[in-house]
Amino acid sequence: MRRALVIGLVLSAASYAFSQAGLLGTKPSVVTKSVPQTQGNTLGGGQVLQMIVALVIVAVVLKWVLPKVISKFSGKSSGNLSSSIRIEETAQLSTVTLHVVTVRDKTLLLSVSPQGVSCLSDLTKIEGSAPEPLAFFDFLDREIETVPA
Question: Which of 58, 113, 146, 147 is most buried (CB neighbours < 10 A)?
Fold first, then answer.
């Protein structure tokens, strides 16, 4: 979204500059009705310094000011470090986002979509339950170790 906005602003500024009577918006002379010509393609020291200062200002705005403004208006709440709610993992699936959330010693799988939030599963481990099955390669390693040489 930001990239499209920046590209749109650059294109509109460029089209405005070239829509003027001459290159870079120079207006024709009242007496001769011609556009004044520049003196070659050389840049003076003042012009280079002005361009560098402008680039630094734009870089500062993009790097530090714009993220603060966006985070202020984005509506996302910042998590409190002492909160009992933690997001363990997140996965994006087209329009649905899956979150593994830990809330007061319970682990939940939540689905967040444009239609709302729904709890898909309670992933809390129950004490005394069967151990998780071994992954294939762990099982294979264990069997290789038990085979007599």
Answer: 113
